[in-house]
Amino acid sequence: SLAGIMAIFSAVITFLVEASTSKREVEKPEKPQLARADTLFNEDWKDEVGSKEDIESLGRFVAELLSKRHYQWVSKRSD
Predict the structure, then answer these.
(1) What is the Rg, in whole angstroms, of the alpha carbon atoms belonging to the chain?
(2) Which of 23, 35, 57, 79 is the most buried (most CB within 10 A)?
(3) pLDDT in tens, 15-68
(4) Quick one: CA dihedral 58, 63, 64, 66, positive or negative?
């Protein structure tokens, strides 16, 4: 029947596509590994402290960002 022939034809095409993509995956070059550095925690850690104007500016920026992204940051503050 036509449906059986189409099913076999589809299976052959699927097999050929999968076989060709598996060959491409084998040929991928390896990524170079990144070197690890020591962290700056403990004695080397320095906290950054801003002025009152810096803090207020950041607060305005975050409030605008939350509003633009439609967060309910005022009405759902306790959540």
Answers:
(1) 29
(2) 57
(3) 888 877 665 555 667 788 888 877 767 777 778 889 999 999 999 999 999 999
(4) positive
Alpha-carbon dihedral 17, 18, 22, 24, rounded to 10 degrees: 20
Alpha helices in the chain (DSSP H): 2-26, 52-68
C-alpha distances in Å from residue 26, one per residue of 15, 23, 73? 17, 5, 49
As a whole number of angstroms, the distance between CA 55 and CA 66 comes to 16
pTM of the model: 0.40
